[in-house]
């Protein structure tokens, strides 16, 4: 039980920090707005924390106000492609596979009807 609560807390902490404004990231409308000095880009490989799926994503800054993210996954249990305009006041919200995503630098928390479902971490 403790392990489940601990994992849930670890998954929620980045989401709670999304409301923080650290000032130095104000001019980054097409990128994540939280501090990760390594890789704050949308494009590249993401790993699902709940399913260990590899998601390969491409960012198009020319679409919409904040850009568009197209992702594909090729896993024996799940093969799919989806895309979402990046929206929200801080350009950190998206929707894919019937889930709502809230992003910070290097992390996307995915929710279904307000309940956490998965987290994606940026990997190389």
UniProtKB/TrEMBL annotation:
Tell me the leader sequence span.
Answer: 1-19
Where on the tree of life does the source sit, at the highest rank?
A: Eukaryota
Which keywords does the record carry?
A: Signal
PANTHER family referenced in this protein's UniProt entry, alphabetically? PROTEIN CBG06219, PROTEIN CBG21798
Q: What is this protein called?
A: C-type lectin domain-containing protein
Q: Which organism is it from?
A: Caenorhabditis japonica
Q: What is the lineage of its organism?
A: Eukaryota, Metazoa, Ecdysozoa, Nematoda, Chromadorea
């Amino acid at each position: 039980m403790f392990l489940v609560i601990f994992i849930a807390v670890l998954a929620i902490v980045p989401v709670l920090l999304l409301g923080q404004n650290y000032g130095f990231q104000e001019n980054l409308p097409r990128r994540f707005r939280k501090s990760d000095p390594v890789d704050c880009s949308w494009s590249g490989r993401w790993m699902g924390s709940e399913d260990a799926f590899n998601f390969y994503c491409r960012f198009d800054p020319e679409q919409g106000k904040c850009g568009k993210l197209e992702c594909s996954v090729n896993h024996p249990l799940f093969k799919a492609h989806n895309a979402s305009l990046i929206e929200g006041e801080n350009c950190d919200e998206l929707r894919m596979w019937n889930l709502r995503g809230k992003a910070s630098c290097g992390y996307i928390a995915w929710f279904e009807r307000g309940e956490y479902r998965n987290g994606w971490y940026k990997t190389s």
